[in-house]
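sanity check both lines:
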Amino acid sequence: MISWCSYCQTYQGEVPPFDRFDLTHGICKACTEKKAMADGDAVARIQPIVDFHARLREKARDGFATAPRDVFDQAVALGIQPLDLLIGLVQPALYEIGDLWTRGEVTVANEHRFSAMVDSLTALVLERMPRGRGLRRSAEPDVLLANADGNYHTLGVRMVELLLVAHGLTTVAVVPGVPAGETLELARSLRPRTFGVSVSLGRQMKAVREIGAGLAGWPAKERPRLVVGGLPIKAGLRLDPALGAEAIADPRALLVAPGQANGTARA
C-alpha cells in the first residue's frame, strides 16, 4: 500500500502488503516533530488525493485516454509535488496495470495507452528538474540502473532515476534490458557504488543471478552494492542469500549520499 502524509501531503513510501495499490494515510517524522497533529483538517485534505488516485487507476484499467498535462495540473492543484506524483501515485498504478495485464484482465492496448501517457508525464516532470539533466548519464555514476535481460518496461527505471537525481545522485540508466554480460562490462567501466536491477517477471531473475555471479568475482573494494526491485519483489519474491543482493520494494531505499552508496567515498 502507498503511505501518504495527511499533513504535508507527501509520499512516504510503501508499506505491506506491497501488492496492494491503495492509499493509506499517516504522519511523517517532520510533521510529528512540528506537532502537526493539532491540525484537525489534515485527514479531510487527503481525501481529494485518494479520489484523484482512484480516478487515475480507473482510467488506466478501463483504457480511457488521459492527457498528461491534465494529470500534472490536477496534481499541482492538489498540492502534490511532481516527484511524489510519479513515484507515489503513477508508478504503483503502472505496476498494477502490468499485473492485471499478465493476468489477462486488461488489454495490451490499455496497457500501452497508459504507458504512453506516463512517458509524456515523466518528460513534463523532467522539464522542471534542470539540475537533473546534468546528473544523468554520468561518467562516474553513484547508481547504475539496468533492466534485467528480457525486461522491456522502461518507465519504472526512468522514474527511479528521476528520484535519485532529485536527491543529488549521479546516474546511468540502461533500458530496455540487455544481456547480463553487457551490463557487467558497463559496470566495470563506470564503477558505480550501487547497481540496481529491475525485473518485471520472475523468469528474469536468471539474468540477475548471472550479474550476481559476475560481481562475486570482483575484488571486494570494487564490488558495487547490488539491489533488485520490480513487481516480483513487491509481490513477495525472496532472494537467495547466496546472490549477495538486496531486495527493495520501495525505491527510496536507493537514496544515499552522493558517492556513498556502499559506505565508502568515491576514489
